[in-house]
Amino acid sequence: MHAYHARESESSLLGVDSLLARLFEGNDDSFYARLAARGDEIVSDEDFAQCYVAGRGRPSIPPSLLMRAVLCQIRDDVSDREAARRAAKDLDWKRALGVEADEVPFHHTTLSVFRSRLLVNDTDGVVLTKTIEPGGRRGCVRKEGAGDRGLDRGDGRSRGRGYL
Question: Where are the domains of the chain?
Fold first, then answer.
């Protein structure tokens, strides 16, 4: 198992959030802006501690970043490959993930490894409960028809459980 590498909360000059804040002032109601602003409240690296062994192996990509990517992936209903492409190229995704404008945060195979790690450690349900439900309370996740496409398919089926 790998040790997880915790996310740093410092922002920089090239930080997408600061760039986008200047470009899109007043447009903080998008899913991506809400996830950027409140993501640390709904998902943290500590939520995944039981999936990693401290001090062993190389540091992993922060699991909170991967979970944010999974939330964006579910919202946009895209493949792992497309999610990795968007995380590398799409400024909205970069803002939601909290990564630099020039950063390529992960390879597409990393998402399936991450979901497998959750399943192997029997934490998929716990993580879903810790992210989706608080995300709804904090306005990061909305139901479809509430002004922004949320995590419901619209046919009564949840997107979340099938992806984890």
Answer: 33-41+63-163
Do 78 and 21 form a contact (C-beta atoms < 8 A)?
no
What residue type is 84 in one-letter code? A
- List 100's β-bridge partners, or say none: 15
Interior angle at CA 125, CA 121 and CA 131, nearest 5: 110
For 99-104, what is the mean pLDDT? 91
Packing angle of the helix pair 31-42, 63-76 (nearest 10 deg): 140
Condensed to tens digits (0 to 9), the pLDDT of residues 6-49 reads 655 555 555 666 665 656 544 667 888 888 888 888 888 888 88
In this predicted structure, the answer to whether residue 79 has a pLDDT above a threshold of 80 is: yes
Asked if residues 108 and 70 have their Cβ atoms less than 8 Å apart, the reply is: no
Contact (CB, 8 A) for 69 and 97: yes
- The whole-angstrom separation of Cα 133 and Cα 130 is 6
- Is pTM beyond 0.90? Reply is no
**In which element (H, E) is residue 17 found?**
helix 16-23
